[in-house]
Each structure stands twice: as C-alpha cells, then as structure tokens.
Amino acid sequence: MIMPLRQEFEELRSRRGLTLLESAMLKCRSTNPKIGVTVVGAGDAFINRYWPTLRKHVSNNKIVLSIADTKGLKALAADKVSDLRKSEEPGMNKVADKLQEGYDQLGRFLDMDSDKAVQYFDLSTKEGLHRYQTLHLTDFVFVLVPDHIHLQEARKWLPRATLVFVEKPYASSIREAQEFETEYEQLQSSAATSGGNAIVVPFDHYFAKLMPCIKILEGGALRQIGELLSIDCVLTESRLPEAHRIETLRGGLMADLYPHILAVLSVFTDLESIGHQKRNVQVATVKANPFPTETYARIESRMRDYDGNSVNVKATLGKGIGEGESKHLIVKGSTGQLVINFTPDRVLGEQPLASWIRGSDTPLTAQAVNDGKLCDLYSSGHAEFIEILLQGKYLDEPCGGLVRHQAELIMKELDALRDGVGKMRSLAEYEPKESVEQIASKATLLPIMRN
Q: What pTM does this model have?
C-alpha cells in the first residue's frame, strides 16, 4: 500500500546513480577524521531544522560546519525575526522569539569557538565570498537558498563536495531541471573515470519528517486502516505573502507548497499515475498579493496506490486564510485513518480526536486510529535524517524519497498546473482572513489535463 522502499532501494542499488552515492559516502567516511558540512542559506529553515542537530555533532567533535548567506548573521537575524513579528497571526511572537534564540545561540557559539569548528561566511563581503569560494573541506552540502537559485548553487559545489542535497522544489521549472540533469549526467560520466563530481540529491524536508513514520508503516501499521480510500492534505496559513519570500512566491503558491504535498503523496501513491488524470483545480489570489499569481489552490484528482487501487486525493494550499495555520494529512482507509499534524498548538476535529491530534513542526505527532485505539508513529524528522546521514547509516536505509525521478515527476506536475493557471486572464480575489470555504465558493475552477 505504501512506496515499496526496500524493493526500490535494492533495485536502485545496482544502478550507477546509487552506486556512486554509496561510493561517495564510503569515501568521506574513510578519508576524513571529521565530516565537513556546508549549509548554503541560514534562514529559519536552517536555524529551526538543521542547526540543533548539527550543533550537537560540532560539540561532539564529529563535524566541521560552514554556513554561508548573503548577509551578516546579525543583519540576517534582524530581518527574519522582524518579518515574523509583523505578522498578525496568533502565536507568531513566540515563533519569532524561538528564532531569535536560535540565532543568538549560533552567534555565541561563533564567538566562543576558538577551534573554528563552525565558520560563517557573509557573502556580501569580498573576504566572506573569497573564503566561501575557496572552501574545500566539505562532504555534505545542504542548499537552503530560495527556490529559483537552487541549481545555481548546486553547480558551484559539483567539483568540491561529495554529496549536495537540494531542498524543494528541485528547480524553478521542468526545463531548468532537465537541462541540469543533462549537464549532471555528462559530468557524472566523466567522473566515473576521473573521480570528480559531487552527487546531487533532490530532497524535500516534509519527506524527512515522514522517514521515521515510514519505517513503522513498512512494519504493517498502515494495515490497521484497511484499503486506502482517500488522502486529504492541507497546508494553509493566515500569514500573507512575506516580503522576504517575494522571489519564491512570484511563481505562485503552488510552486512553493505543492512539492511538499507531492513528496508526502509519493509515500502512499505512485506519482506516475497522476500524469493522465484530470485535475480539478480551484485558484484565487488574496487582495494584498503583490503579484498576479495564486495564493490559494485546491487540487482534486485520483491517483493509484502501490497496490494499483484508485485513491481520491485532495490538496488545499493557502496564505491569508481565516482559520489560521493548519498543516495536516489525513489518510482514510476502509477500517480507520492515519492523521499526521504538522502544526504547533493546533487541534483537528471534534473529541476524542482533539485530545490527541497535536503536533509541532519538529517533532510532529502522527497516530493511526482504528476502533478507538491509538498507535503512536512518529518522534522526530529532520533530526533523524541528519543523524542517519552523519552516522553513515544512509547506505543501509531505503531512500525512496531521494530518488531522482521523483523530483522530475514533481517538476512536471508543477509545470502542468502553472501552465494552466498562466493561461487565465485574471484570478478571483479574496479578502485576507476569509475562511477556506468562503474562498472556495468564489475561486476560479480550472480543469487541467497533462499528456
């Protein structure tokens, strides 16, 4: 019923791509006393999801960490925290406080780090840019910059790193992704003899959150809910499009958030199956949006699970939504359901569900419901993925979510949806803080097919 990870992993092991990946892992584990880790982009994703685990490994003298961004650390922190404090969404001051605390901890660490186990490069300065461009002690690179420059940064590290992880979406368009793939494959062919270039791994951090859950699902927990019937995924926020993410959101909200949903869906359904299906897409834009692109979308379609059964799939994305932040996944089966909640301090549904369906961004809570019985499925996400990577366990793990063709399928689907929306002369508008149902009642309906 779920992605046949073990089978897929074993099949891919014999292919050149994964063989290179294994060789790269073995190389960095055998030649360096410490693992060199570089993070490009020191925004809230880094502070909240990567820094806590990486800091532990720096303190344990296991890694050397390099961090790079286009601003100095204090200026970057001030901008990121200020943007959060401007939000009218309840609880955002606490989020801002937590982010400020993370930046303060990083700043103190840099001040006290006489061994220079952690370095910060301000790329707006000549010195910082030169030090970054000449940095070579790197095994793993995490690219956390805005989406439209993902592959631009990945290219820079091809001759200098062992593994380069690129967050979602892989590229700004399927054409850009395919051009990079052609270039990448040519480089890898030459690297097979010269031992040159890094392995580039497309990766979505929502899949990282699900990795521990997948292990338990593989063990049979998902069978508690019976035959898979429907999947409903919601990623909505009351926040309006943020000023610092304008470049990302210029291409529309689907380009920003839908890759997360497709990555999650790939656990339960075959992404190949969506290609020839009709999608009913509702789109609208909030009146405060500085670009004529969608800030709300509801996408309904049918996909096949890995047993070949047809499954109803619905995804709802939105900014400026009245219900506040709501990020969750509900997988319904014939005898029960799986609920995964990604939202801090948010409850779903009526009692008795409201008493236990709670979560936070990391860690989140996931539980399966069957005849009133609860099965706890999840403890941590990003942290576990980084632990697997740094401890060298990666070679023993099924890594279906890291398979390259998954990224290409996601980009194809994004392009199909964006092309359809791009042909529309105008979008329906909604007022900030209207409810999802109010927005849906006025949103433009757009049937989309992809050959």
A: 0.79
d(CA 368, CA 354): 14
H or E element that contains 305: strand 296-305
Q: Are 158 and 197 in contact (CB under 8 A)?
A: yes
Q: Name the residue among 148, 167, 136 with its Cα closest to residue 66.
A: 136
The total of other beta-carbon atoms located within 10 Å of residue 151's CB is 22
- Which 3 state secondary structure label does DSSP give 11? helix
Q: Which two tokens stand for residue 240?
A: 């309006």
Where does a domain end: 185, 202, 219?
202
Q: What is the DSSP string of 343-357?
A: SBT---SSTTGGGT-
Q: Do 197 and 209 have their domain in common?
A: no
Task: Examine the domain organization and report whether 159 and 303 are in the same domain.
Answer: no
Q: Looking at residue 134, which CATH number applies to its domain?
A: 3.40.50.720
CA angle 224, 229, 230 (to 5 degrees): 110
Residuewise pLDDT in 10s, the chain (451 residues): 555 444 444 444 444 344 444 455 555 554 556 788 999 999 988 998 889 888 888 888 888 899 999 999 999 999 989 888 887 666 778 889 999 999 999 999 998 877 788 999 999 999 999 999 888 767 889 999 888 888 899 888 888 887 888 888 788 777 888 888 888 877 777 665 455 567 787 877 777 667 656 665 666 666 677 788 999 999 998 888 776 666 666 778 888 888 888 888 888 888 888 766 788 899 999 987 877 788 999 999 999 888 888 999 999 999 988 877 788 888 888 877 777 777 655 544 433 333 333 333 333 445 555 544 444 444 456 676 677 677 655 544 444 344 566 777 888 888 888 788 877 778 899 998 899 999 999 998 887 765 4
For residue 236 the two structure tokens come to 């909505």
Identify the H or E element spanning 37: strand 35-40
Contact 283/443 with Cβ under 8 angstroms? yes
DSSP string across 181-206: HHHHHHHHHHHHHH--PPEEEE--HH
| Residue 382 near residue 209, CB atoms below 8 Å | yes
Q: What amino acid is encoded at 92 in this protein?
A: M
Domain that holds residue 387: 205-448
Cβ neighbour number for residue 252 with a 10 Å cutoff: 26
Number of H helices, E strands in the chain: 15, 17
The answer to whether the Cα torsion of 312, 405, 247, 211 is positive or negative is positive
Q: What is the domain-level CATH number for residue 399?
A: 3.30.360.10
- Name the amino acid, one letter, at 97: D
Instruction: Report how far residue 111's alpha carbon sits from residue 105's, in angstroms, rounded to the nearest whole number.
Output: 10
Query: Cβ(263)–Cβ(166) under 8 Å?
Result: no
